[in-house]
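seq:
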Amino acid sequence: MRKILSSLSVIFLMSANAFGQNIPVDPSVRIGTLSNGMKYYIKKNALPEKKVEFRLAINAGSILEDENQRGLAHFMEHMNFNGTKNFPDNKLVDFLQSIGVKFGQHLNASTGFDETVYMLPVPLDKPGNLDAGLKVMEDWAFNATLSDEQINKERGVVLEELRLGLGPDKRMMDRYLPKLLYKSHYADRIPIGKKEVLENFTPDLIRQFHQDWYRPDLMALVVVGDINADEIEKKIKDQFSKYKNPSKPKERKSFDLPNHKETLVAIETDPEATGSGVQFVIKDAEAYQPDITVQQYDKSMVEGLVNMMLNSRLAELVNSANPPFTYGSVYHGETYARTKDAFQGSAATKDGDQLNALKVLLEEVERAKRFGFTQSELDRAKDQMLSSYEWAYNNKDKNQSDELVDSYVGNFLRQDPIPGITWGYEHIKEVLPKVGLEQTNELIKKLVKDDSRVIVMTGPQKDHIKMPTEAMVRNTFDAVKSSDLKPYKEKTKIESLIKPFRSDGKIVKTETDAKLGTTTWTLSNGAKVTFKKTDFKDDEIVFSAISLGGVSVIPDADYNATKFAFDALLEAGLAGLSKTDLAHYLAGKQVNVSSYIGGPTEGVSGASSKKDLKTAMELMYACFTDLNYNPDAFNAYKTKKSAMLANADSDPGYYFSNEYSKFINQKNPRFTGLEPTEKDWANTDYKKAYDIYKEKFANAGNFHFYFVGNIDEAQLKNEVLQYIASLPATGKSSTFKDTGYRPVEGGYTKLYKKGKEPKSLVTISYSGEAPYNEKEAFALSALGEVATIKILEKLREDESGIYGGGASGSFMKIPYSAYDFTVNFPCGPENADKLTKSAIAELQKLIDKGPEQKDLDKYKEAEYNEYSTSLKNNGFWLQGISQSQIDGSDPYAVLNYPDKVKALTVKDLHEVAEKYLTKQRNIATLMPEDGWEKAKKDETEKAGKAH
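struct:
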């Protein structure tokens, strides 16, 4: 949303002498316009090294389609991957994969109502890649071939994408959109389009769309990366200036979201709906104007503070002992239409509780209108906003290119300001302290109006659920206005989390590893601390603490009584502070810490800025020593979780995964389902879970702590001695255990039926126990990536039968050694059997002959590409240096990875395919419920008569 004020590309200025002054443009961004009207943005950014991010932004989307073109803006996006002047047919994806760009993960595009954006990251490790990237952008902009053959082949793929969106949410949306987008052209131009148009449009219609809207004066090229800006600018001018606009260009109209006096209400239910919710939209009186001047930003900053304070109050309600909804938020910002902002709110609720949720949302807004905010609320919001800017400013020279590029796209499409974080931070330091309660309190009074209101309620259609009437919904506004509300009560400000104490802990041993660049301290309580200083971010430290054991050592009966309670333990808060108290205490701090009890491990993880490391250590210390016990907090968590999952089985995908998992784990008494049922909750013992947690975290000597980032060693040492070396320890060690339970043996075929829409899911898998072999494990993983390439080529490009899908291979090392190779894809039920056979045939080719060298090379290039970027990521190193503690793997694997990739051969992949893909095959298929076969037959006959 363009006006969410935490956006760090935004800057606000409130000094009186800046009235009418325009927000400047970041001087490090080179912006120009070619003679044909095409715009370009160029920024040199050295991270990641030898990489460049391209974006092609087109100021045209589905809103510009004619009635007989509905869906063709999005279809056009697809066609740019299916034949251009320099990359005919499917050669584009093939070429980009050959230089290390993964289709879907790196290479992608998106189509909206008002815009289309193409995304291309290109590694610059080889000569010619930069020019190739520019050539792709040129072809996407102007040189789509749009052959009849490729258009007709792609119909199936786009229809499969449309099929993925079918279901209860789509059915309800089709009914409420005419009210939500009342008398707006947007209601008739959903980007995915209409099925009958996609099936039957003539190729000339998409060619006309391309001719009308893919033109220089509606385009911008954005280039950010490890480049020479002068060189790039010259190339852009040479390549893109020659293209002309149509002699009689169509007008690029803007479309409004009209206002209306009446309050429009949509109450929609569906038998397959998986959740209940409410949304309100109160449209602004005037059309949206982008923030250009400092004065406009003044208002936007105050809006941001108001948003933060209102949502802080709503979060308190969500975290209360009797939460009115499972999630709730309000904000002022963008609607479906680029031309209209609105004050909006939404909540996820228990079934049948939507009206009460709406009432609570509006009451909190009304409370703020009547009584205003408190000074402490405003101070917290200002602290949080300033802290976010400070953190971004501290890391300003260490931004990855993909973190920057989209802001320039936004500047072109929506005139979002791009002043740069240096200008932003300096000015916000100056102006934010001047914002007073009179400004925030005045603004909140203007957000809620009596006209242009739309309320949407959705939920499951069940006999026992009674939905409100439209009149009851409308009356809620009047009832809230006259309600007896009290001012918001501010709690006492919390000055500290941990009471001061003296630590006698010491470092008894220091070891260094020059290859990894790590130092390890052994502490007097037995705990170990390993840290690695990096300069990847100037103000970031990530950390974890790991102990072996997890739930694997808990007896079956205790495990089943506690497994769903562990995630709820932190809901009670720490050190006598509730979750809300902690949120208030941490306002203005860049820190997060959480603890967990998982499968083979328990531990703590988090991140912080340099100055907030002490707070992070306090939180970690409290996780070990002072977890609150609060049955009310657990019951509130259970209430929210139950509401979220009440209708989970109505979702065909969830039903399929859950039932299939139950079948696979039928011999495992520790498995009862993916999520808790009412029976599970009835059998859950919160106190026992709490006691298990306290026992596990009572022995810090069994934990290894890891820190990675821009670490000041002296600061870290002080905090470690104070907060980690002082943790209690028992001197005992533990490890995980194998429970002995195994999935059912393979060789089965399972069929599940769920859902009314013609949608299917197919899972093909090979799995079982096998001795762990590191080389085979690596080859099996690579085989999954190569198989994904082949399956997409065959099932998507050749057969037009799927939109997405793929394969994965892995080898589990703990708690026992086992392999797994799985293929997944969604499709139409009429094609499920055929596509299953096609996928198996592709696997058989890998078994018979192994992969082609070119496909293995594509995998390798993608791995080199990702690895070179990951090497400058703190989280990557944190995982890399801690993994060997968990599974005993090579501690230098993080360094040796490129050599392992380079050493892989076609023979290696062929051997694991022969060894593991020839064992018992398992097939599980989800089909819709009875009736789709007749519907498909009727549709086929109807189509035959039409032609």
